[in-house]
Amino acid sequence: MKRIIQLAAAAAILSQPAIASAAGQPGNGKSFVDDFASLDGHRWFVSDGWSNGGFQNCTWSKKNVAIADGALRLTFEKGKTKDRDYSCAEIQTRARFSYGTYEARIKSVGGPGFDSSFFSYIGETDKQPHDEIDFEVLGKDTSKVQLNQYISGKGGHEKLVAVPGGADKGFHDYAFVWEPKRLRYYVDGTLVETVTDPSAIPQHPQKIFASVWASSKFKSWLGAFEAPDVAKTMEVKRIAFTALGHPCQFKESVACKLMPASQ
Length: 263
Fold this sequence. Notes:
The protein is mainly β. It has helices at about 5-15, 220, 255-260, and strands at about 30-35, 45, 60, 65-70, 70-80, 85-95, 100-105, 115-120, 130-140, 145-150, 160, 170-180, 180-185, 190-195, 205-215, 230-245.
């Protein structure tokens, strides 16, 4: 999903420490595992007070980000916020990350018009080309997750793959392994896509994001938005990054299976 960030967002993000990240150079982000016993403000920046563009029918709100029952909770709910009728939630890392294994354990929301996302991204607000690697659950059909990547602002690599049991019915593991000449996507530990075309592999270090939002305008993509009677909450039990060549960090990690092949 191409992000269109307004001036308020740009000001907030650019207030964070600038980090040189030319193509091919490593990001400053180190390997980590976050099980969300609490929300680490040194690691995570909470989006608040803006939206990503006119297509989004909600405004990011820090009030919609919470820790409860051993999970990060990102909530979409009705409530007037500036020029929008709904509020939604997003977190992003302060650091940028380069090649390695990116993983999240997530229970998405369902419903036409909704998007539950785990992805990496960098772009104009960080004075970098737009590179991005995506997992997006489109609420109109939670039996699948959409994969995609952007390279210097060019997308068009969408692919839908099955999520056994449904992305909104329970927690599922989403992972991608990003290397200089290869990108692999995994769902629940199973390889579902391999990309080797150099023109389809991002090269710039990126931040890690998790978000839930909705749109009334992307009907062909997300489905026709249906206003929910109650708040909808995306839950995240874990987000992890394992730098390329580093030891795996938890037994369920895709990196544990792939370390010999990644070195």
